[in-house]
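Give me structure tokens for this 110-residue protein.
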Amino acid sequence: MIVEVVGGADERPEVRVVDVDDLTGVYLALGAVTDEEADQALRDAGLGRLEDAQTGVLEVAALRATAEPQAGGGDWAQRWDGVVTEAADGGRLVDDGAGLQVRVESAAGA
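Here you go.
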């Protein structure tokens, strides 16, 4: 699953959740936006925040609420729970389990 922050209409960054059925990894992809713009866009969307240039924190409940309606598989909720459990076991849950720490990458084509 990818949370993208890319340039949107009127130079305002846009946040999109894509590839929701691919739960082999969850990461944040930034397009042609500054770190400050990305952080503000994530906060405005209620999906998380940017910690630094390499790390973001995504809100677990908000991400699920956004992604699940787009999901194609009947077992998506179970697989998502597995992602969250694996993150907890790996020490990647923050904010008392409400946030999922993810890596930041460059958005394709940005």
